[in-house]
Design brief:
Helix content of chain A: 40-55%
Strand content of chain B: 5-15%
Strand order of the largest sheet of chain A: 6-5-11-8-9
CATH class of the largest domain in chain B: Alpha Beta
Oligomer: heterodimer
Number of helices of chain A: 17
Order of helices and strands of chain A: HHHHEHHEHEHEHHEEEHEEEHEHHHHH
Number of helices of chain B: 7
CATH superfamily of the largest domain in chain A: NADH-ubiquinone oxidoreductase 51kDa subunit
CATH topology of the largest domain in chain B: Glutaredoxin
Largest interface: A-B, 61 and 47 residues
Distance between the termini of chain B: 30 Å
Bound molecules: flavin mononucleotide, iron/sulfur cluster, FE2/S2 (inorganic) cluster
Structural class of chain B: alpha+beta
Shape of chain B: elongated
CATH architecture of the largest domain in chain A: 3-Layer(aba) Sandwich
Structural class of chain A: alpha/beta
Largest sheet of chain B: 5 strands, mixed
Order of helices and strands of chain B: HHHHEHHEEEEH
CATH class of the largest domain in chain A: Alpha Beta
Number of strands of chain B: 5
Strand order of the largest sheet of chain B: 2-3-1-4-5
Chain lengths: 434, 161
């Protein structure tokens, strides 16, 4: 079994082949409904496929949760420019480790999703941008691509139609910011990962300034299921406006962390208590980061909610990338705040001042706090600095750094005050990035 | 610069991966794959990549410095990368980091004097559900304990002899 035992409460739609022998091979895929959705798609018009996606309520699994059907409809299909399909496999949001499994155990499902996308927008080339650390996945995806060519699923004039599609893998080289769609495209073109001003969005001017369909690995991997089951049945799995299932990456202080597929709207406390097997060592729950480290965390008493995009937005957080981090009563929230800020400060591309300077100063202030040298003023200053970054940065990384900081300092102010009262602490060799 | 036959084949394939006239896209993959073989991004490699993709060496250098996996100085034969980001921090990643620094007597982005092992504290490597996690070169190790780390570091030493 890959990495963790499946749980009976899961609804396995896109992870259902994970445990099969040779699950990554095209034979296993074909024997288990593989490429059936593509057959179906080729008999449909692009508009009909987009409608099916709209009805399915499939929303982007990469972070922002944008409706996938709508995004696909934005690509100008009649443009004379070549069109591209781009898979975001940069997976770097702390807490997230699902795209890795989707590529490792079911690479053809991703390819099938890409093929359907290519057919819809009329793209002849597709790329999978894989983070540099995931080297073994390049080998797995390359093998799957070779198989798909050998069996006539990729190449020129496929299935007796005019449909031509070629796929290649592409590698990043260590930069969280390259997961941001426009920075990813810059990086893909062989440049520094500095984001682009938008509009135009990638749908209109993406790779090589051409129309580009850009989605997360899990989003593309969900498309075959939508077409196979039909939009309404897929939507039915979830809750209104939040269709289907999604992969939750459960980590932190639970007994059985792992990646689990659940329907949208699955109760958060059931994730902790059932999928996660409850808190480790009988400790009490303190807080949950619902969808990757950029999502404001929820205090234990706020966690009695369903896991879907809208419910989490109502709770002033986000479902994000599905990286759910569980923290127990012993967790030091000041140190968590510092660790999160160290990450964003390190990953800020430095292009715009509020983010570059904001993350740097927040890191300094939080480091001072952890050293026990915080000043009474600092609590307010940290909050103000973070709030002043919100909405004032060139790309959403600035918000991603500010939001969790604001949530921690507001919800766990008492812990910051306790640090002040304790006075100087022996200095831990805190890493200062060179 | 002469490349090994394997690397030469890789470079040739990379150039054909992108549409005509868009060969600059091959820059980062070329640098990373070549670095894996050569050990670092050398000035000769920068020249070679620039020539192949039709840019100035300066443009390659400018891009290279952005990416944390690309490095001009060689690291150890075994590059031990320890994640201390939140999921790993909650499950002992920081202790692993301190343990490794102490045991090897080196710090962040430093190598042992014999050049065998280098250390890096890294950001999330996508193994959060199996934390704490480390990577040795490209190999993942999950749910690492200080004991497992000791065994691993010892085995790297024995491998080398
Ligand atoms: C700083 C930053 C990092 C991001 N990293 C990723 C990532 O690693 N993977 C991903 O799929 N999306 C990431 N995103 C979101 C992408 O910009 C984009 O919205 C997403 O890939 C679109 O795909 P979707 O509609 O299928 O979700 C990131 C966004 C930001 C602002
Ligand atoms: S918000 Fe941060 S990462 Fe985004 S462009 Fe500005 S400096 Fe770069
Ligand atoms: S936080 Fe360490 S692997 Fe994700």
């Amino acid at each position: 079994m890959p990495y963790n035992e499946p749980h009976p409460a899961e609804v396995r739609i896109i992870s259902k082949r994970f445990g099969l022998p040779n699950s990554a091979s095209i034979d296993t895929y074909l024997a288990n409904e593989g490429y059936q959705a593509l057959d179906k798609a080729l008999g449909m018009t692009p508009d009909a496929i987009i409608d099916e996606l709209k009805v399915s309520n499939l929303r982007g699994r990469g972070g922002a949760g944008f409706p996938t059907g709508l995004k696909w409809s934005f690509v100008p299909r009649t443009s004379p420019k070549p069109k591209y399909v781009m898979v975001n496999a940069d997976e770097s949001e702390p807490g997230t480790c699902k795209d890795r499994l989707l590529m490792e155990f079911d690479p053809h499902q991703l390819l099938e999703g890409m093929m359907i996308g290519a057919y819809v927008i009329g793209a002849q080339r597709g790329y999978i941008y894989i983070r540099g650390e995931y080297r073994y996945l390049i080998e797995i995806m390359d093998r799957a691509i070779e198989e798909a060519y050998a069996r006539g699923y990729l190449g020129d004039k496929l299935h007796g139609t005019d449909f031509t599609f070629h796929v290649r893998t592409h590698t990043g080289a260590g930069a969280y910011e390259c997961g941001e769609e426009s920075a990813l495209l810059e990086s893909f073109e062989g440049k520094r990962g500095i984001p682009r001003i938008r509009p135009p969005f990638p749908a209109v001017a993406g790779a090589y300034a051409s129309p580009t369909l850009l989605n997360n690995v899990e989003t593309f991997s969900s498309v075959p299921a939508v077409l196979r089951m039909g939009g309404p049945a897929y939507a039915e799995l979830g809750v209104p406006r939040n269709g289907g299932t999604r992969m939750l990456c459960l980590s932190g202080h639970v007994n059985t962390p792992g990646v689990y597929e659940v329907p949208l709207g699955f109760p958060m406390m059931r994730v902790v208590n059932e999928l996660g097997g409850g808190m480790r060592a009988g400790k009490k729950l303190k807080a949950v980061v619902p969808g990757g480290s950029s999502c404001p965390l929820l205090k234990a008493e706020e966690c009695d909610i369903p896991m879907d995009y809208d419910s989490l937005a109502k709770a002033k957080s986000m479902l994000g990338s599905g990286g759910m981090i569980v923290m127990d009563e012993d967790t030091d929230m000041v140190r968590v705040a510092l660790r999160i800020m160290r990450f964003y400060q390190h990953e800020s591309c430095g292009w715009c001042i509020p983010c570059r300077e904001g993350t740097t100063w927040l890191k300094k202030l939080l480091t001072r706090f952890v050293d026990g040298m915080g000043q009474p003023n600092d609590i307010v200053m940290i909050g103000d600095l973070a709030k002043n970054m919100l909405g004032r940065t060139f790309c959403p990384l600035g918000d991603a750094a500010a939001m969790p900081t604001i949530a921690i300092i507001e919800k766990f102010r008492d812990e910051f005050e306790a640090y002040l009262a304790d006075g100087p602490k022996p200095r831990r060799e805190e890493l200062v990035y060179a | 610069m002469t490349l090994s036959p394997a690397l030469e084949a890789k470079f040739q394939k990379l150039l054909t991966n992108y549409p005509e006239g868009r060969q600059r896209s091959a820059m980062i993959p070329m640098l990373l794959f070549a670095q894996d073989e050569i050990g670092s991004v050398t000035p000769e490699l920068i020249q070679e990549v620039a020539k192949r993709i039709g840019t100035q060496p300066l443009q390659v250098e400018e891009v290279m410095t952005y990416y944390s996996m690309l490095h001009a100085k060689p690291w150890g034969k075994y590059h031990v990368q320890i994640c201390t980001n939140v999921s790993c921090m909650l499950t002992g990643g920081e202790q692993l980091w301190e343990h490794a620094c102490e045991k090897l007597g080196i710090g962040h982005r430093q190598a042992t004097p014999d050049g065998l092992i280098s250390l890096e504290e890294v950001e999330c490597i996508g193994a959060c559900s199996w934390a704490p996690a480390i990577q040795v070169n490209y190999d993942f190790h999950h749910k690492v304990t200080p004991e497992k780390l000791d065994q691993l570091l010892d085995s790297l030493r024995t491998h080398a002899v």
